[in-house]
Structure formats: structure tokens, C-alpha cells
Write a structure and sequence with these properties.
- The complex is a heterodimer.
- A five-stranded mixed β-sheet of chain A has the order 10-9-11-8-12, with helices on both faces. A three-stranded parallel β-sheet of chain A has the order 4-1-5.
- Chain A contains 15 helices and 14 strands.
- In chain A, 53% of the residues are buried.
- Chain A folds into two domains: 198 residues, Periplasmic binding protein-like II (D-Maltodextrin-Binding Protein, domain 2, 3-Layer(aba) Sandwich), CATH 3.40.190.10; 98 residues, 3-Layer(aba) Sandwich (D-Maltodextrin-Binding Protein, domain 2), CATH 3.40.190.10.
- Chain A is of the alpha/beta class.
- Chain B is mostly helical.
- Chain B has a domain of 207 residues: MetI-like fold (Orthogonal Bundle), CATH 1.10.3720.
- Chain B has a three-stranded antiparallel β-sheet. Chain B has a two-stranded antiparallel ribbon with strand order 3-4. A two-stranded antiparallel ribbon of chain B has the order 5-6.
- The radius of gyration of chain B is 30 Å and the shape is extended.
- Classes of the chains: A alpha/beta, B mainly alpha.
Chain lengths: 338, 404
């Protein structure tokens, strides 16, 4: 099954001779839709709702890019990818960008030839256990059976963590988050490990979330962000600066509600440059002047996206923590629009 | 009277390549071959150009690098610092293990179901045709997932065995059936245990020698020696005696609940069981049909003739029908064995670490060397399939009808 996917991807990679070389921006404009790779379903980050519409923190980035490039936040073709298929899908040109809580690492950037355009969530790997197990620290997990998504950085961190602490474990490799959830709830594994945000999102979908605890240890750095193929810098810039526009909008107080007002009424030159009433930033990107305004108007700024999908008022209830604006002591920081 | 003369030999003309039937087929074959070579060369060139454009190259250097991940089911020593090549080897052994187990079990299921389907008992034959139709017509991936899900949902978790009044108990105090797998006692080989093993092997040889001797005696003198109980005695008694003489050198390591899981003993993981069982029961349904076809291919006259000679039904089957049925059964059986081996690549659906899951899954993903890994995988499955085919063909030669 998986083999045929790979072979298919390889064939496409082989046949799509011109496609990869030509500008992705032009391709997207000509096609009229953006092909965006997301997870197969992780509530809060990317999951279809009851009406089959994709929603979530990562989905908002896709929609913002579509709004900026195509002027239509719904012109997105969502391609669900697993931890294993995501890079092949991107490398082969099946998707234009990947927004799938993917960790920015050296080898993915340098060796796999991808360009991470920024970080939209600073995360770390954690462990979830049933409360009834009575475990309070990840170091007490000696001999435990651990559910782990294959093809992820967490798989390697897990091996390193247990090795460094000189304790043993039994891995149960799984393909998707849904599968992990099922195995964990059936007791086929003692603990489930993935990014702490993913654990919180998974726990929120349980029948009794309070029966499960996240252990205090965060065993790795997991900077998550959208990525594109190497070698197409124009397209990389579009995605990078769309993300930065959302972040800057929060910093400057531009929201989906006041964006049109701010475009004309604000005296702040950076707001004006961002929203295209001053300067030619949009033109430099190969877009029109209103690109950032459309992205912000359709999805809201970074803070709004966070609050709506994974914030403290949602079932996932993640606090901003490291993901607060730098002005509030967090790490979310956009280079200036100048 | 006319004199026949050979027509004058025409010299070869280019148009004859198309017009002359002697050359035409060769011409077309040559053209087709050329087109194929051009197409393959185009695709390969395209691939390499694109790889070069993306700054990628084909390199197998990653095989020597540490894999970095752990594998739950392994037949050889392996940890996360072992190389990718060793991870692939673990996967290869796991594939071979499950394929081997499933081939044996599928054959057993298939032969039983195939023979019983021809039973005169209405209920038995209908039950068997029900089995064949149900299992043959639902994809094997679905069976793998169904069986695995049932196992994890129905069997108790190891923690159910804990406490003073546990919800689950071990069978005979030595076998634990959990949703993570089955734990069975493992033998501990103490000093002197090899003598016991050697005795056991010697008694197995002894059983065969005795039966051969008894057979020869029967043919030469007509004296019938008892076969059943002496064979059993030769098989068991010397080994048991030697076991006590050597002071019981072989002990049992009984699995015990420790920490989160059972420790000690041998663990047969749930993914292996689910995959093994699903592959056997699915392919068994196909083999059952082969067996039935093979038996029905033997003319009824053979059975009647054998009965007329006074052979009882068991011997008719063993000595007359089955040897003739085998030559019909074996060739399709080869392809079912190949199918089992290839279908075992669905292992990743239940987290079993076969070659597709290690080399073609995790290694591919962590290194990003998709083309290299897929080429290796293709090579592996090709080699394995051709080997199985070769071995089975040799066996087929020995059972084909000897025509003299």
C-alpha cells in the first residue's frame, strides 16, 4: 500500500520534469487553488469539522496564504499526509506547501532539501499516561510500552531519552494520531508520546480527559512551522511573509475586525506598509498591494488564530507560553515589514 | 513431365522487412524493444536530471549511519545506535519469520478446509465453503486490522493481572494472554543441556531408523512389527531419562509481571500474531480451493479401482489420490506462498517491524533516501520471491507424474 504511494510519487517526480523548476507561485495562480499538505486529523491543528471543512491552527496558515495569493481563503485543496508521506508529497510537487506541525531540523532543511519559512508554534515532546498508572515522571517509565508515530522526530527523541536515562521501553509504531489514540485507550501501550500540543489536542477529544495526565518532562525542542521545497525562493518568500504578516498584525494590534479601518486610519507607517496603503511590498512579492490585508481579514492575526483553535478557551486549552509575542516575553517574533 | 526448379534466390531488399512474413515479426519485435529502451532511458534520464536539479544524488552511505530508532520485535541484537543496514536486517528477518509461519499455517488451514469441503457431511462442507467465501472475498488488510483490533480490545492489558484479586490470571501460571501479545515460558539452557538436546536428536533419528527397519522386515519376511508405541517410546524415553541423569539442566523462565509489562519468557507480540493469523486464514481459503480442485482432478476411476483392490478409505487418499492431486496443487501453491510473502508488507498497519516498515518506512523517512530505499526493497522482494519459486519448483519436479 505504502510502497505504491511512494512509487507513484517517484513516477510523478520523474515525469513532472518542468513542474518543479517553474515558479510555484505562477502554478498556484494558474491553477486557482493552493495544494496544502496537512495532518490526517489532529483536532485544533488540522481536522475537518462536521461539515467536512478543514479547520485549525495549521489550516489557518494555508488559508491565509490562499487569501494572500488568490484572494480566496477557501481556494485550498487540503491534502492529508501522514508522518511518512508528507515529505514525498512536498518533494514531488503534489503539494505546494506543508503546514503539518512539522519540526524544523537540520537534516530536513539541509539534507531533504526543504525550506522552513518560519515557526508558528514552539513545542516540545511530552508523555501522556493514564492517571490510574500512578506515574509522575517520565523517568519512571522503565519497561513501559510506548505508542509512537513513525517517521517523526519524536521517534528519534524517544530513543535518545530512554538511552540517556539508561532505561528500557518497548515501542509500538503507529501511523496516525487516531491510531495512537485508539491503541493508547485500549491499553495496548502505557504511554503515548508526541508533541505536547498534540497530546493536549488528543486528550481534549477523549471521553474523560481528566483521567489522563501529561508528564512534566518536555524532552525535546520541537519548533513547528510551514515548509516549502528548496530552490523556489519566490514562493518561499510568499509563504514566509504571509506567516510574518499574521504575526506582525498581532504585534501592531491589527485584527480581522479592524483591518480595513487600520489600513486607512492608522498613523503607524509599518501598519500602512503591511496593509499596502504605503510602499510596494506586495509588488515585490509578486502579489497585489492588499495581500496581507486579505490574509488577516480572512483568518485574523496570529493571536486570534491561536485563541480560536488551540487557545485557553478551546477544549485543547493551550496557554501561549513560549508562543506569546516577544513583547510579552514569548518567542513569537517577526522581522520588520520595511 | 515438368522439372521442378528452385525459384531464383532473391537478394535481400529492405522492403522485405515488412512484406516478407519471414522477417516481419522480427522487425516488429525489434521496433518494440527499441521503443521500450528509449522510454526507460527517457524516464531514467528525467529522474537523474530532476534529482540533479534539486541537488540530490543516489547514495547508499546512509546504510552505515546509526538508525536512531528502536524496534519492538527483533530476532537479533539491535538498539537505536545500530546502523540502518542492521535495522533493515531486523526487518528482513521479521518478514521471513512471519512469511514462514504464515505459509505453514495457511497450508494446514487450506488442506483441512479443502478436504472437508468435499465431505459428505452437509454441515461440514457448507461450513467450509462459508469459510472460503468469507475469507477469500474480503481484502487481507481488513482482516489484519480486524484481528488486531479484536486482540487489543478483547484481551486484558497487563495491568489487569495486577493486584490481589486481578481481573485476569495466567493460564497454568505460565502463559499470559494480553493485548500486547502472548507471553510463554522460555527454556533456560543450563550446563549439560546440550547432552539432552543431542539425545533428543539421536532419538528422532532412531525413530526413523526403527520404522525403516520394520518396513524392510515386513517386505522381506512378511512379519509385521508394531509401529505406534515403539516409535513413541523411542521418541520420549531416552530424552526424559537423560534429562534426569544430567540433573534437570533445562529450566523454564516463566514470564512474570514486573513494572509495566510481563518480563522474562518469550513474548510473541500482538502485531505478529494478528499478521500471522490474518495472512494464514486469508491465504488458507485460497489454498483450500486449490486442494479441492486437485482432489477433484483425480479421476473417480482411480478411487474405485483402489477400493476394488481392498484398500481402506484412508489409504486410498494417502496412496492413490493425494500423490496424483499434488501435481495439480503445487503450482498454484507456489504463487500463494509468494502472495503471503508480499502481503506481509502490510505489516505496518499493525506496527509489525518488517522490511517495509523498517527500511521502507522509518529509515526512508528519517534519511529521506526514498529512491535508494525503494530500490533495495524491490530487490529484496524480488530475490525472496524468486528463491521461494525456485525451491517450490524443485519440489514440484519431485511430485510430477513420472512418465516412463
Amino acid at each position: 500500500m505504502k510502497k505504491s504511494v511512494l512509487l507513484g510519487a517517484l513516477t510523478i517526480a520523474g515525469l513532472a520534469a518542468g513542474a518543479a523548476a517553474a515558479g510555484t507561485l505562477d502554478d498556484v495562480k494558474a491553477r486557482g487553488t493552493l495544494n496544502c499538505g496537512v495532518t490526517t486529523g489532529l483536532v485544533g491543528f488540522a481536522a475537518p469539522n462536521a461539515d467536512g471543512e478543514w479547520n485549525g491552527f495549521d489550516v489557518a496558515v494555508c488559508r491565509a496564504v490562499a487569501a494572500a495569493v488568490l484572494g480566496d481563503a477557501t481556494a485550498v485543496e487540503f491534502v492529508p499526509t501522514t508522518g511518512k508521506t508528507r515529505f514525498t508529497a512536498l518533494a514531488s510537487g503534489e503539494i505546494d506547501m506543508l503546514a503539518r506541525n512539522t519540526t524544523w531540523t537540520f537534516s530536513r532543511d539541509v539534507d531533504l532539501k526543504f525550506t522552513f519559512v518560519g515557526i508558528n508554534y514552539y513545542d516540545g515532546q511530552g508523555f501522556m499516561v493514564p492517571k490510574s498508572l500512578g506515574v509522575t515522571s517520565a523517568k519512571e517509565l522503565d519497561g513501559a510500552t510506548v505508542c509512537i508515530q513513525t517517521g517523526t522526530t519524536t521517534e528519534l527523541n524517544l530513543a535518545d531519552f530512554f538511552r540517556a536515562n539508561n532505561i528500557s521501553y518497548e515501542p509500538v509504531p503507529i501511523e496516525t494520531n487516531a491510531e495512537g489514540q485508539q491503541q493508547y485507550l485500549a491499553g495496548a501501550c502505557d504511554t503515548y508520546t508526541t508533541d505536547a500540543s498534540g497530546l493536549a489536542a488528543t486528550r481534549a477529544s477523549f471521553e474523560n480527559p481528566s483521567d489522563h495526565v501529561l508528564l512534566p518532562e518536555i524532552i525535546s525542542k520541537e519548533p513547528l512551522g510551514p515548509l516549502v521545497r528548496h530552490g523556489d525562493d519566490e514562493w518561499g518568500d510568499v509563504v514566509r511573509w504571509t506567516l510574518n504578516a499574521l504575526i506582525t498584525a498581532e504585534e501592531l494590534g491589527v485584527t480581522s475586525a479592524n483591518v480595513s479601518e487600520m489600513a486607512t486610519g492608522s498613523n503607524n507607517p509599518e501598519v500602512k506598509r503591511l496593509l499596502g496603503t504605503e510602499g510596494t511590498l506586495g509588488e515585490m512579492l509578486g502579489l497585489d498591494a492588499d495581500w496581507a490585508m486579505r490574509a488577516i481579514a480572512s483568518q485574523g492575526n496570529y493571536g486570534e488564530i491561536f485563541a480560536k483553535n488551540i487557545g485557553e478557551d478551546t477544549p485543547i486549552a493551550l496557554s501561549r507560553g513560549l508562543n506569546a509575542q516577544w513583547t510579552n516575553g514569548g518567542l513569537i517574533y517577526s522581522p520588520p515589514f520595511r | 513431365m515438368t522439372i521442378m526448379t528452385d525459384p531464383p534466390r532473391e537478394s535481400f531488399r529492405l522492403s522485405m522487412l515488412l512484406n516478407d512474413t519471414r522477417y516481419r515479426s522480427i522487425t516488429f519485435q525489434a521496433i518494440a524493444l527499441l521503443a521500450l529502451i528509449v522510454a526507460i532511458a527517457y524516464l531514467a534520464n528525467n529522474l537523474f536530471t530532476n534529482l540533479a536539479a534539486q541537488g540530490l544524488n543516489i547514495s547508499y552511505g546512509f546504510l552505515g549511519d546509526p538508525a536512531g530508532y528502536d524496534i519492538n520485535q527483533r530476532l537479533i541484537e539491535y538498539d537505536s545506535q545500530s546502523s540502518n543496514a542492521r535495522a533493515a536486517l531486523v526487518g528482513i528477518l521479521n518478514t521471513l519469520l512471519v512469511a514462514f509461519l504464515a505459509c505453514i499455517m495457511a497450508t494446514v488451514f487450506g488442506v483441512i478446509a479443502g478436504v472437508l469441503r468435499l465431505s459428505n457431511n452437509w454441515l461440514v462442507s457448507k461450513l467450509m465453503s462459508f469459510y472460503v467465501e468469507i475469507f477469500r472475498n474480503i481484502p487481507v488488510l481488513i482482516w489484519i486490522i480486524i484481528i488486531f483490533t479484536i486482540m487489543t480490545a478483547v484481551m486484558p492489558a497487563p495491568r489487569a493481572f495486577r493486584g490481589d484479586e486481578p481481573e485476569a490470571t495466567m493460564l497454568l501460571g505460565a502463559f499470559a494472554f494480553t493485548n500486547r501479545g502472548i507471553y510463554i515460558p522460555a527454556p533456560i539452557w543450563g550446563p549439560g543441556s546440550m547432552v539432552v538436546v543431542a539425545t533428543f536428536i539421536a532419538s528422532v533419528v532412531g525413530v526413523f531408523a526403527y520404522r525403516r527397519y520394520a518396513k524392510n522386515l515386513l517386505y522381506q519376511t512378511g512379519r509385521l512389527l508394531p509401529m505406534g508405541w515403539p516409535s513413541l517410546a523411542i521418541f520420549f524415553v531416552p530424552t526424559i531419562v537423560m534429562f534426569f541423569i544430567m540433573g534437570r539442566p533445562i529450566g523454564l523462565d516463566i514470564p512474570e509481571l514486573g513494572g509495566f509489562n510481563f518480563r522474562g519468557g518469550i513474548q510473541i507480540g500482538a502485531p505478529l500474531i494478528a499478521l500471522w493469523f490474518a495472512l494464514s486464514i486469508y491465504t488458507g481459503a485460497f489454498i483450500a480451493e486449490n486442494v479441492r480442485a486437485g482432489i477433484q482432478a483425480v479421476s473417480k476411476g482411480q478411487t474405485e479401482a483402489a477400493s476394488a483392490l481392498g484398500l481402506h478409505p484412508g489409504r486410498v487418499m494417502n496412496l492413490v489420490v493425494l500423490p496424483q492431486a499434488l501435481r495439480v496443487i503445487i503450482p498454484p501453491l507456489i504463487s500463494h506462498y509468494l502472495n503471503i510473502t508480499k502481503n506481509s508488507s502490510l505489516a505496518i498497519a499493525v506496527g509489525y517491524a518488517d522490511i517495509t516498515a523498517t527500511l521502507g518506512g522509518i529509515t526512508l523517512n528519517q534519511t529521506g533516501r526514498a529512491i535508494e530505499c525503494v530500490l533495495l526493497l524491490m530487490l529484496f522482494y524480488l530475490v525472496i520471491s524468486l528463491s521461494i519459486s525456485a525451491i517450490m519448483n524443485v519440489y514440484n519436479k519431485t511430485v510430477t507424474l513420472k512418465e516412463r
